[in-house]
Design a protein that fits this description.
Keywords: ATP-binding, Kinase, Nucleotide-binding, Phosphoprotein, Serine/threonine-protein kinase, Transferase
Structural class: alpha+beta
Order of helices and strands: EEEEHEEEHHEEEEHHHHHHHHH
Helix content: 25-40%
CATH topology of the largest domain: Transferase(Phosphotransferase), domain 1
Strand order of the largest sheet: 1-5-6-4-3-2
GO cellular component, one term: cyclin-dependent protein kinase holoenzyme complex
Radius of gyration: 24 Å
CATH architecture of the largest domain: Orthogonal Bundle
Strand content: 5-15%
Number of strands: 11
Family: Belongs to the protein kinase superfamily. CMGC Ser/Thr protein kinase family. CDC2/CDKX subfamily.
Subunit structure: Interacts with CYCT1-3.
Bound molecules: adenosine-5'-diphosphate, magnesium ion
Shape: globular
CATH class of the largest domain: Mainly Alpha
CATH superfamily of the largest domain: Transferase(Phosphotransferase) domain 1
Distance between the termini: 80 Å
GO biological process, one term: positive regulation of transcription elongation by RNA polymerase II
């Protein structure tokens, strides 16, 4: 894993960042095992506030701080939006902690560095996998709208997430959804001229242009992943569960049709196109396979799962889709909040009163 030069870690830009110790928090339980660290639910001792602590894994980093963590911190520090997870601060632990074993090595950060996040009750994968769980249409619209709103904000701020999938979408008990895990995220320039790595995005959610080896790409890569999540919510399970890259591409082509210069101008120049293009004739079957989906849902899905990234729908345009403006409308988490028991009682009383008055009027 790449490491950072000392000056890359400008935590000191904000004096309070990194100045408090992790002992300001009481760890309650481990809630996730990430690719480069564990995640704990914890309580801030002074305020009682519940937070999530993500420990930055240092075991492979003999020489410095992992670049993935630097990226995540730098990017999250500049993003402030209700659909993007809030990084509250960084805390440190000077030496090995009680629950840590093994001798200290030459790494001066060995004690541990933690990112402190607002706590969210679930991630989308965990929630969807619950036995008997079925999301209503209004709920799916509500999650999709928040996912697109958060992603549109990232894209406007020239950040590509590059790992959109259920386990990185956090949801609280009020129905708020936030994008999390910016470990693979990076800034991009609007001309898409820089060469970026194509080994990003978890395989099942990876778009065809990355699987074909392109190194010049933009926000459309995240929109493909959003399409995969959308289809998964409607269908009840992942739609492209490939085992390896060739199988992944094959699953995509079987549903979305084969790529060619007519529907995707320039595709034949992408590095691995000639090796990986389909060998047998195929046609786009998306509308036929998912014909039982709601008409507006299918129209939107079709635009998200468009092979040519330059024709794929953007987050902004997706938010304007008919799907979000037709019945049942997406439920609004803010309205849930105001629906406290007091309001419910008042509302029911008003309905009963109206009904009684109507009856007596008719009599
Ligand atoms: P990784 O990059 O290692 O995948 P994540 O940031 O995705 O790390 O965290 C791993 C898991 O921990 C998530 O899938 C989620 O289940 C849980 N998690 C992460 N952040 C939070 C949070 N703020 N609140 C609650 N759970 C979280
Ligand atoms: Mg993750």
């Amino acid at each position: 894993m790449a490491i950072a030069a000392p000056e890359q870690l400008n935590i000191s830009e904000v004096p309070t960042w990194g100045s408090r110790g992790v002992d300001c928090f009481e760890k309650l339980e481990q809630i996730g095992e990430g690719t480069y660290g564990q995640v704990y639910m914890a309580r801030e001792i002074k305020t009682g506030e519940i937070v999530a602590l993500k420990k930055i894994r240092m075991d492979n980093e003999r020489e410095g701080f992992p670049i993935t963590a630097i990226r995540e911190i730098k990017i999250l520090k500049k993003l402030h939006h209700e659909n993007v997870i809030k990084l509250k601060e960084i805390v440190t632990s000077p030496g090995p902690e009680k629950d840590e074993q093994g001798p200290l090595d030459g790494n001066k950060y060995r004690g541990g560095i933690y990112m402190v996040f607002e706590y969210m009750d679930h991630d989308l994968t965990g929630l969807a996998d619950r036995p008997g769980m079925r999301f209503s249409v209004a709920q799916i619209k509500c999650y999709m709208r928040q996912l697109l709103t958060g992603l549109h904000y990232c894209h406007v701020n020239q950040v590509l997430h590059r790992d959109i999938k259920g386990s990185n979408l956090l949801i609280d008990n009020e129905g708020n959804l936030k994008l999390a895990d910016f470990g693979l995220a990076r800034s991009f320039s609007s001309d898409h001229n820089a060469n970026l790595t194509n080994r990003v995005i978890t395989l099942w959610y990876r778009p065809p242009e990355l699987l074909l080896g392109t190194t010049k790409y933009g926000p459309a890569v995240d929109m493909w992943s959003v399409g995969c999540i959308f289809a998964e919510l409607l269908h009840g399970k992942p739609i492209f569960p490939g085992k390896d890259e060739p199988e992944q591409l094959n699953k995509i082509f079987e549903l979305c049709g084969p790529p060619n210069e007519d529907i995707w101008p320039g595709v034949s120049k992408i590095p691995w196109y000639n090796n990986l293009k389909p060998s047998k004739p195929m046609k786009r079957r998306l509308r036929e396979v998912y014909r039982h989906f709601d008409r507006h849902a299918l129209d939107l899905l079709d635009k998200m799962l468009t092979l040519d990234p330059s024709q794929r729908i953007s987050a902004k345009d997706a938010l304007d889709a008919e799907y979000f403006w037709t019945d049942p409308l997406p439920c609004d988490p803010k309205r849930f909040k105001s629906l406290n028991p007091f309001c419910v009682i008042l509302y029911s009383k008003a309905v009963i009163l109206f009904w009684v008055m109507k009856k007596s009027f008719l009599n």
